[in-house]
Amino acid sequence: MPSHEILSSTSTPSTIYLASQVHYALRTRAEVVLKPYAVTGLQFTVLSVVARHNGLSSADLSRRFYVTPQAMGQLLAGLEHRALLKRVEDAKNRRVLRISLTPAGRKLVKAGTAEIRKLEAKALASLGEGPLQEFRSMLHTLMWTLREEPAGDQS
Fold first, then answer.
1. What's the whole-model pTM score?
2. Tens digit of each residue's pLDDT (9 = 90 or more) over 21-48
3. Looking at residue 57, what DSSP letter applies?
């Protein structure tokens, strides 16, 4: 059977596949608009989260971004080396380092956010305002549902 017949005889793409395709397309575009700031999409997103939630720990961020504590530690070390953020010992537990942005980090987040908002407006314009708000609401619900459910729990 020719491959085009196999593809046409299968069911529609899964929702996870569609979401993944959108994710990769947006991630690729975000990397382009963030390139002048010399940060990756993940680095920018971490900086943005720290801007909104000052004082998170590396462990907090690793859980939020679904990466190992070691991987997050390396990412943070690079951003700290570039003086975009700083880590300070927690007063109650010296083993915990609390993360905050430096003035340079805040400046980068402000400029990068403007670029990301332009990208988002262009990429999502075809949805229209009402459907866009509904889509955002559904994404929030899904995000919190997945955060509350351990990744290994597939039952």
1. 0.81
2. 999 999 999 999 999 999 999 999 999 9
3. B
3-state secondary structure of 68: coil
Cβ distance 61 to 42 under 8 Å? Answer: no
**Sign of the alpha-carbon torsion through 143, 70, 104, 87:** positive
Contacts of 102 (CB under 8 A, 6+ apart): 83, 84, 85, 86
Q: Which of 86, 110, 82, 81 is nearest to 100 (CA)?
A: 86
Alpha-carbon gap, residue 110 to 13, rounded angstroms:
37
Amino acid at 80: E
Closest CA to 106 of 124, 122, 84: 84
Taken in order of first residue, the domains within the chain and their CATH numbers are 15-148 (1.10.10.10)
CB 57 within 8 A of CB 90: yes
What's the residue count for the chain?
155
DSSP H helices, the chain, are 3-9, 15-34, 41-52, 58-64, 69-81, 103-124, 129-148
Q: How many CB atoms lie within 10 A of CB 30?
A: 21
DSSP output for 83-114:
TSEEEEE-SS-TT-EEEEE-HHHHHHHHHHHH
